[in-house]
C-alpha cells in the first residue's frame, strides 16, 4: 500500500529533483559559445538573398528595434556612425527589405519593424554572440557552482538568473527518465512500519518512494533481498523494468512479502512524475516588456505561461527534431514552434545531459529580444548543469 508520495529528489526526504553526490563534477568554463544556434530544418527554404548593404541595414534595424521597441526610420539609422548612406538610400533599402518579407511597415508609423523572417535571418547569419562580462561570469560561478550537487536547486537558480540577466522568462525542464538506467535500488526502514525505496539512476538523479510494510525484517535479510533485486534490475532502464518486472521477479522466493510489495507497487516505483517537470521564473520581468502592456496581451501571456503541458510539448518537440543539439542553443521564433498560441513569442533553449537523460533550459520572451545575449547565457548555463554519462570524471573547468 502506498502511504507516501514518490519524488525525484535529494535523498532522503527532499521533494523535487536532486543528485547522488558521488557523481558530481565541478563547474564549467564560461566562454563565448563556439557553435551557431540550431535553426529549423527548412529555415533557409525560399529565403530571398540579400546584398551586403541589405544585410547591414537589416541588422541595424533589428538592433535598434530591440533597444527601443519602436519602429525604426531611415533618419534614425542615418545618424548611426557605422552608416555612410543618405536617409533616402536607407529608405530605399528598407523598402526593398519590406518587399522581400524581412521588414514590416506598421500603418501608424513611417518606420519599419522586423518580421519573423527578418529575425530568423538575423539569428542565422547576422548576430554577434557576445562573451559574458567578468561580473556576470563571476555571478554564475559563485551562484551555480555551489549548487552543482543539487539539481533541483541548480535548475531553480538557473531560471532565476536567466530571467534576471535577460529580463525574460527563465525556464528549465527536468529530464524524462524512461530511458534512465537504474544504477542501484536501496531500501531504508523508516518508523511507523514504512520503507523508503531509493532508486539511483545513471547521472546522479535519485527517486524515493515511501511504502507501508508491516513485517519487521532483520537488516541482514532485507540486504539479501535488495542484493537480489539489484541483480535482476540494475543496468536496465526504468522503461524496461516497467515492461518486464513480473517475468524478472515472479520466480523469486518471498517468505517475507517484500517481493510481493515490489511487484504490487512496481508501476509507482518505476514510474516518472508527469507533474512538476517545468520550472520557470521571472513572470514580472516579461510582463514589464512593452509588448505586454495591453490587458489582452498580458492575459494571453499569463495563459500561455500557465499552460505547462503546452510549453513542455513545444520543448520536447524541438529536441526530438534536433537530437544532436547538446551544447548548442536552439532558437525558435514565433510560428516556428508550430503552436499558434506561441506565435507572439520566441524561445531560446539549450539541452543538458544528466547521465543517459536529457533536459533543457532557456528563456521565453517576445520576438523582440536580444538573441545574441540570450544564446550566450543559455549555453553557459546549460554547460554548468551538463553531466553526460560517459564524461563523469572530466573536469569541465579545463577547456578541451
Description:
With 400 residues, the protein is an alpha+beta fold. It has three domains: 52-126, Winged helix-like DNA-binding domain superfamily/Winged helix DNA-binding domain (Arc Repressor Mutant, subunit A); 129-175 and 275-391, 2-Layer Sandwich (Beta-Lactamase); 182-269, Enolase-like, domain 1 (2-Layer Sandwich), CATH 3.30.390.60. It has 14 helices and twelve strands. The protein has helices at residues 52-68, 74-78, 87-99, 116-126, 134-145, 151-166, 219-233, 238-249, 258-264, 266-269, 283-287, 295-306, 308-321, 371-385, and strands at residues 2-8, 103-104, 113-114, 169-173, 182-190, 194-201, 206-212, 278-281, 330-333, 345-355, 357-366, 387-388. The strands form three sheets. Strands 4, 8, 9, 10, 11 and 12 form a six-stranded mixed beta sheet that branches. The chain has a four-stranded antiparallel beta sheet with strand order 1-7-6-5. Strand 6 and strand 7 form a beta hairpin. The longest helix is centred in the first third of the chain and has 17 residues, at 52-68. The chain is elongated. The relative contact order is 0.18. Mean pLDDT is 82; it is low at 1-6, 8-34 and 392-400. Residues 152-375 form the Heat-inducible transcription repressor HrcA C-terminal domain. Residues 1-49 are annotated as: Disordered. GO terms for molecular function: DNA binding. Pfam families: HrcA. Belongs to the HrcA family.
Amino acid at each position: 500500500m502506498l502511504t507516501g508520495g514518490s519524488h525525484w529528489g535529494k535523498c532522503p526526504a527532499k521533494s523535487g529533483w536532486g543528485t547522488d553526490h558521488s557523481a558530481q563534477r565541478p563547474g564549467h568554463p564560461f566562454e563565448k559559445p563556439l557553435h551557431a544556434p540550431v535553426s529549423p530544418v527548412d529555415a533557409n527554404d525560399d529565403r530571398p538573398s540579400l546584398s551586403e548593404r541589405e544585410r547591414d541595414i537589416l541588422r541595424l534595424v533589428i538592433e535598434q528595434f530591440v533597444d527601443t521597441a519602436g519602429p525604426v526610420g531611415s533618419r534614425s539609422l542615418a545618424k548611426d556612425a557605422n552608416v555612410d548612406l543618405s536617409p533616402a538610400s536607407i529608405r530605399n533599402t528598407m523598402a526593398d527589405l519590406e518587399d522581400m518579407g524581412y521588414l514590416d511597415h506598421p500603418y501608424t508609423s513611417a518606420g519599419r519593424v522586423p518580421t519573423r523572417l527578418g529575425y530568423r535571418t538575423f539569428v542565422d547569419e547576422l548576430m554577434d554572440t557576445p562573451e559574458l562580462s567578468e561580473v556576470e561570469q563571476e555571478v554564475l560561478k559563485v551562484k551555480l557552482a555551489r549548487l552543482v550537487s543539487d539539481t533541483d536547486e541548480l535548475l531553480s537558480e538557473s531560471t532565476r538568473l536567466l530571467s534576471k540577466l535577460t529580463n525574460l522568462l527563465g525556464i528549465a525542464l527536468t529530464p524524462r527518465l524512461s530511458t534512465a538506467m537504474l544504477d542501484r535500488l536501496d531500501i531504508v526502514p523508516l518508523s511507523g512500519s514504512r520503507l523508503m525505496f531509493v532508486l539511483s539512476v545513471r547521472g546522479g538523479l535519485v527517486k524515493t518512494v515511501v511504502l507501508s510494510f508491516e513485517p519487521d525484517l532483520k537488516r541482514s535479510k532485507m540486504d539479501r533481498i535488495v542484493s537480489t533485486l539489484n541483480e535482476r534490475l540494475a543496468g536496465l532502464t526504468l522503461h524496461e523494468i516497467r515492461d518486464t518486472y513480473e517475468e524478472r521477479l515472479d520466480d523469486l522466493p518471498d517468505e517475507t512479502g517484500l517481493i510481493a510489495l515490489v511487484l504490487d507497487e512496481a508501476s509507482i516505483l518505476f514510474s516518472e512524475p508527469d507533474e512538476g517537470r517545468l520550472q520557470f521564473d521571472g513572470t514580472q520581468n516579461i510582463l514589464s516588456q512593452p509588448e505586454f502592456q495591453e490587458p489582452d496581451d498580458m492575459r494571453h501571456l499569463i495563459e500561455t505561461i500557465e499552460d505547462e503541458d503546452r510549453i513542455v510539448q513545444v520543448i520536447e518537440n524541438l529536441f526530438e527534431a534536433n537530437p544532436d543539439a547538446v551544447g548548442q542553443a536552439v532558437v525558435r521564433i514565433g510560428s516556428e514552434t508550430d503552436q499558434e498560441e506561441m506565435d507572439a513569442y520566441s524561445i531560446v533553449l539549450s539541452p543538458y545531459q544528466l547521465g543517459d537523460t536529457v533536459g533543457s533550459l532557456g528563456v521565453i520572451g517576445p520576438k523582440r529580444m536580444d538573441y545574441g545575449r540570450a544564446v550566450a547565457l543559455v549555453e553557459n548555463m546549460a554547460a554548468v548543469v551538463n553531466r553526460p554519462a560517459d564524461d563523469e570524471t572530466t573536469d569541465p573547468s579545463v577547456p578541451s
